[in-house]
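User: Can you help me understand a structure? I only have the sequence.
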Amino acid sequence: MNHIYVKDILEKCDGYLVIGDENTKLENFSKDTRTLNNGDIYVGIKGETFDGSTLYKDALDKGALGCVLNKGVLIDEEFLKKYSDRFIVLVEDTIKCLQELASYKRSLYDIPVIGVTGSVGKTSTKDIIASVLSKKFNVLKTEGNYNNHIGLPLTILRLKEHNALVVEMGMNNLGEISLLSKIARPNVGVITNVGTAHIGILKSRENILKAKLEILEGMDESSVLVINNDNDMLHNWYEDNRDNYNIVTFGVNNKSDYIASGIISDAFSSNYKVNINNVENDFKINIPGEHFVLNGVCALSIGKLFNISIEDIKDGIENFALTKRRMQIENINNITIINDCYNANLDSMSSAINYLGSLKDFRTIAVLGDMLELGDYEEELHRKVGKVIKENNIDILVTIGNASKYIKDEAIKLGYNINNIFSFDNNEEGINKLKNIIKENDAILIKASNGMNFIEIYNGLKETLE
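Assistant: Let's start by predicting it. Here is the structure, written out as tokens:
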């Protein structure tokens, strides 16, 4: 295990030690006093309206071993007298300090580091890669939504006896993946796809591609980039750059290093084949849909990079656990609920609706909310979702929110039965309607951007059915 200490904050982050021992070992970090555990190091993060450094008393009272705070916070020296066995360090910027500490800790580990980015599918791809690698390594992976300039450093700082790391890298704008990649320094980078997420900020898919490719900026010449060769933007980039980088491709439709074929899906799983060294291998993934097959083939390609056996790769793919609220499928009293309410953009909406439409033995209900952060593209992209609804012959459409009304309008324009559409302004109205129309053998997709709080709809439905 490679340890870091208080003295590393003093040296690498120009910290000032108010109280405590500079040789104190730093193991577990927390940025939230509400979830802080005894022995954690509390890091006070300054937001737009509030400076978490002011909560150092709460942190120490709850058992924090020490606190890293922004300079300028008022320290109550009388209060600190009862905590002479703890430490407090002041730094200019706690976020920058976290990043510098994480970069230093990463440098202490000579282990496989896989960085995963993309417009959609980052979390599930990260989960399945970690599952495959766990057959050979003690893997640390990103938990929850810790994929930004604060979450990624906190993930790296959790490294202990691990000998592999899988980190998810999210972004809203140019320059953000570059920062994360330079901290994590992945020796394998993964780009799941280039879609329309954050197009309202970045203005074009070309800029989104540019942002995703920033993952290369933290990778050295020996590193490998793994890309989804079915994605049009990545495929075209690959054709132009295949001789400039170490690239491994995966796909279903385009010729790739690893390609899935013979896909057969039911409501709960997919079976497919991959030809490896002229031997056809059967795979199964317990999440349905072609996009999850792609994730499985991606994980296969990484497993092969690290010489994991085919049987272990198969087991890792079949038995991986998906992060909650990402295509979480449950059957409750003969009603299937597809809870995919963590986030939404055109690509993930289309994939989820395509899966719902494939369930021919069910009455299908799509409960869709607004896709956020689309800017000037809001109407256009919601209307494209309406087209996907019509193409998949979804039986009932429920929309909630202002922008999602464009989904309804486009579906009607294309000939969708207006009597099968219900449109609401808030979640409560939607829940009440669903309670009145659901029946046995329904399959219900719940999907919207996280800001729409569709977990309320999931919980309301589940409570009714149970």
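Now, to help you interpret it: The chain is about 35% helix and 20% strand. Residues 211 and 263 are 32 Å apart (CA to CA). Let me know which part you'd like to focus on.
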